[in-house]
Amino acid sequence: MTVHFPFQNSYSALPDSFFARVAPTPVAAPRLIKLNRPLAVQLGLDPDLLETPEGAAILAGKTVPEGADPIAMAYAGHQFGHFVPQLGDGRAILLGEVIDREGVRRDIQLKGSGPTPFSRRGDGRAALGPVLREYIVSEAMFALGIPTTRSLAAVVTGEHVIRETALPGAVLTRIASSHIRVGTFQFFAARGNTEAIRALADHVIARHYPELREVERPYHALLAAVVARQADLVACWLLVGFIHGVMNTDNSSISGETIDYGPCAFMDAYNPAQVFSSIDEMGRYAYANQPRIALWNLTRLAECLLPLFADEQEKAVAEAQDILGAFSDQFSAAYQAGLRRKVGLFTERDGDEALIQDLLDAMAKNQADFTLTFRKLGDAAADDGTDVRAQFMEPAAFDEWAGRWRARIALEPQSAAERQAAMHAVNPLFIPRNHRVEAVIQAAVNDDDYAPFEELVKVLARPFENQPEYAAYADPPLPDQRVLQTFCGT
Ligand code: AMP
Ligand code: MG
User: Fold this and answer.
1) Which of 93, 98, 213, 330 has the fewest CB atoms within 10 Å distance of its CB?
2) Annotated active-site positions, please?
3) How many other C-beta atoms can be found within 10 angstroms of the C-beta atom of residue 9?
4) pLDDT of residue 89 exceeding 90
5) Which of 22, 91, 278 to mutate to test the pocket of ligand 1 (most atoms within 8 A of CB)?
6) How confident is the model at residue 489, as a pLDDT?
7) Residue 89, ligand 1, Cβ within 6 A
8) What is the rounded average pLDDT for all residues in the chain?
9) Ligand number, closest to the Cα atom of 179
10) 25 lines ligand 1 (CB under 6 A)
11) CA 433 to each of CA 136, 140, 240, 331, 369: distance values in angstroms, whole numbers, following the listed order
C-alpha cells in the first residue's frame, strides 16, 4: 500500500511570480518521531501508512507523494520594522493542499526540507529543538482553542545542521488553512504589481472569506475581515499569556491563525513588559505591545490594498483608515469579554473593567503566576481562596481585591459550582511552560529520549482538565529552572 494524499492544489495554479517550483532535498536517514494521528485522520490521510518507512520518507521530504506540486511561496516582510522586499519560503516547501473532513482546504507544508530559491544564505534546514518547540506549542494552542497552524509530524533527518554547534536536523510537517501572509501582499506591492495583488486578494476571498464574494466592495470587506480576525487572535494570545515573539509582517497570517513558532513563549509571572526572544532587544514584541503591533501589521496590509480601493489615493487612504479604525474597539471588546469570563462574571456592569485591571495590577506587582492565578481564582469561587492568595508575594494584596470581587459575583444568581466550572473552562491549568519545553528538547537532542516530549504533548492536549497524575506540569519554574530567553534557532 502506498500513502495516498488527496491533493487538490490551488495556490500553484496562480501566476508563476507567486512561487518557485522546487522539490524537497532528500535526507540521509529519516525517522518518524511523532505523528499527529487524529490530525492525519482529519486530513483524510491514513495514519498507519504514514507511520511506515515510506510515510516517514514523505514526511522528511525524501519522497514526493503523487499529486504533490511542491513550491516555495514568495513573500516579503517587515522584520522588526525594516522592510525586506524578498523573503519567501527559504526552508519550507508546500507539498500541496487537501480538503479536510470539515471541508476546509489545508496546506501541507514541510519545514526544514532543504534549500529553495528564497534561501539566501540559509541552509534550508531546521534543527530538532525548534521543530519540537513548534510541535508542542502549536498543538497546545490548538487545544486551548486558539486559531493556529498545526503540526502533523516531526521527523529527524539523520543529518546534522550547523548552527552554533552541530545539531540533529529535523523536518516539521505544518498544516495551515493557508500560508498567505501580510508579507505575501507586500511582495507584489513592492513591485507595483497591482494585477497580482488583485489575483491574490481574489484567491484569499475565495479561500478564507467566501461570504465576501457577493458584497459590494469585496476588497474593503477583506481588509475589515482580516482586521477582525487579527483583533480576536491577539486577544486570545493575551488571555493565555502568550508572547509570539516575532510578529513580523511575514509571520502575520491572512487567515487569522497563529503562525511561526520561533522564540514564542508563555509567561509565568504576569508582567506586561515581558519579552523572551533573544533578538527582540527593544521589546518591540513584548506581551502588552502585541495589539499595537498587530494593528501596525494590518496597516501595512491596508497599504498594499490601496490600489484596489479607489483610483484616487486620498479617497483610498481615508477608506483604509476608516476600516483600520475598527481594530481598537474590536480588540478591546474581545479582550474585555475574555477577561470577564476569566474572573467568572456572567454579566457586564459599570466598574467591571476597573475591577479586573486592579487584579492585573496587583498580579504584576506581586509577580503572581498568570495561569495559576486565574485557575485558582476559579477554585476560589467555591472555596476560601487559599490557593490563589498563595500566588501573590503579598497575599494581602489579593485579599483586598477579593473582597470587592466577592461582592461583585454575589450580584449574580449562578451557584459557586457553576461559576467554578465556567471559569475552569476558560482558564487552563496546563500551558507549555518554557522550562518544560526546554527540558523536553534537551532530552531529545542530548539523549535521543522522546518520552518527556510524548508526555508533555499528552498533558497539553487537555489543558482545562485537572490531571492529578500530571499535577507537576502545572507548576511554575523554580528559581533555578527559569528560562529567561528563547531563540529562533534558525
Ligand atoms: P522566520 O524567522 O522563520 O520567520 O524566517 C524569516 C525568513 O528567513 C524566511 O524567509 C525564512 O524562509 C528564512 N529562513 C529562516 N531560516 C532559514 C534557513 N535555515 N535556511 C533558509 N532560509 C531560512
Ligand atoms: Mg516566518
Assistant:
1) 213
2) 250
3) 18
4) yes
5) 91
6) 67
7) yes
8) 97
9) 2
10) no
11) 10, 11, 12, 26, 11
pTM, 2 dp = 0.98
**DSSP β-bridge partners for residue 172:** 111, 154
* Ligand 1 atom with the shortest distance to the CA of 112: 19
**pLDDT at position 490, please?**
59
Beta bridge partners of 169: 127
> Which set of grid coordinates corresponds to residue 375?
485557575
What are residue 342's phi and psi, to 5 degrees? -65, -35
Residue 139 has a CB neighbour count (10 Å cut-off) of 20
Per residue in 289-334, pLDDT tens? 999 999 999 999 999 999 999 989 999 999 999 999 999 999 999 9
pLDDT of residue 106: 98
User: Whole-angstrom Cα distance, residue 63 to residue 27?
Assistant: 10
- % of the chain beyond a pLDDT of 70: 99
The SS3 assignment for 113 reads strand
Burial 455-490 (b: 16+ CB within 10 A, else e): ebbebbeebeeeeeebeebbebbeeeeebeebbebb
Ligand 1 atom with minimal separation from the 116 CA: 21
Confidence of residue 2 (pLDDT cuts 50, 70, 90): confident
* CA atoms of 476 and 482, how far apart (whole Å): 8
**Alpha-carbon distance 399 to 412, whole Å?**
21
Residue nearest to atom 23 of ligand 1 (CA): 90
Q: Residue 273 class from Cβ within 10 Å (0-12 exposed, 13-18 middle, 19+ buried)?
A: exposed
- Rounded Cα distance between 298 and 254, Å, is 10
Asked if 19 and 71 touch (Cβ cutoff 8 Å), the reply is yes
Q: How far is the CA of 358 from the centre of ligand 2 (A)?
A: 36
Whether pLDDT at 217 is above 80:
yes
Beta bridge partners of residue 151, listed in sequence order: 174
Residue type, 42: Q
Residue among 336, 343, 322, 475 at smallest CA distance from 409: 343
Task: Report the Cα 170 to chain-centroid distance in Å.
Answer: 20
User: pLDDT tens digit string along 229-261?
Assistant: 999 999 999 999 999 999 999 999 999 999 999
CB 54 within 8 Å of CB 2:
yes
Interacting residues of 314 by C-beta distance below 8 A, sequence separation 6+: none
